[in-house]
Amino acid sequence: MLIKLLKYDLKYMIKNMSVFYILSIFFAITTRLLSLPEQTVMIGILSKISSGCMIAMIANVVINVMMRSWVRFRDSLYKDEAYLTHTLPVTKNDLYNSKFIQTLIFFFIGFIIVLLSLFVAYYTPDTWLVIKDYIKTITTGFNMSPLFFISIAILLIFLELFNAIQCGFLGIILGYKKNNGKIGFSVLFGFIIYLVAQTLVLGLVFVYGLFDPTVMELFKSGTISINVNAFKILAIVASILYVVIIFSMSIIGKKLLNKGVNIE
In angstroms, rounded to a whole number, what is the distance separating the alpha carbons of residues 124 and 252? Predict the structure, then answer.
């Protein structure tokens, strides 16, 4: 039954997100095409407009995945659609898992669209060499491979934003247990949970630092001239903690859902 639920959730997201995916790729292509001919004032203006539209669509891809995920979660569990949802022969765990997987899939797709759009619009051999040299300069200073640096940076950004979405889910569950001001309480609880999650990550990193002097040095030193291995360890530990917190919040969310749902 989870597969059937996920199918409907994916259809909803495709319907709402496909326009942003298409426009992002479209403006990436027009930006590239406008960079090919000899540049005139008019072509330069059109190129900048196209580039600006592409950046706006990229931002919309990320923002709307978050917003639509929250809206879908709320509408299917607490609004008019919920009267049908809760009559289905499915568990509350399946309902939550479907939203969790749907968000994960579309957040991953969104990241791919963003990277693809930037590649199509701006890639040239010269630009790539400049980026490689810049990354190589950073990674050489930090004594790490460029692939590790890029991978861990993308992973941390992904986990940070996905963590924010899960905070929103938990905030909605708590907010809709209230009798009044449900949306306001949902936003408030989501924000508080996000702050708690961030504090928890920092606190757990500090605890880890008690056993690893290189990481503790990050808390003590007032300069950046510290053991660069600490940055590697910090990035890996933070990634693991985000994964643990995300799945812990999903478990808490499912337990709260199983206690009952107040439909509007």
Answer: 47
Q: Write the DSSP symbol of residue 226.
A: S
From the number of C-beta atoms within 10 Å of its C-beta (0-12, 13-18, 19+), residue 126 rates as exposed
Note the pLDDT of residue 107. Answer: 86
What is the Cα 227 distance to its own chain's centre? 30
- State which residues of the chain have pLDDT below 50: 224-226
**For residues 166, 190, 67 and 165, what is the CA-based torsion angle, rounded to 10 degrees?**
-20
**Cβ–Cβ under 8 Å, residues 175 and 182:** yes
CB atoms closer than 10 angstroms to residue 54: 25
Determine contact, residues 70/168, Cβ cutoff 8 Å.
yes
Cα torsion 127, 59, 158, 106: sign = negative
Measured CA to CA, the distance from residue 28 to residue 20 in angstroms comes to 12
Q: What is the dihedral of CA 163, 166, 170, 176, to 10 degrees?
A: 130
pTM of the model: 0.81
> What confidence score (pLDDT) does residue 226 get?
47
Contact yes or no for 161/66 (Cβ under 8 A): yes
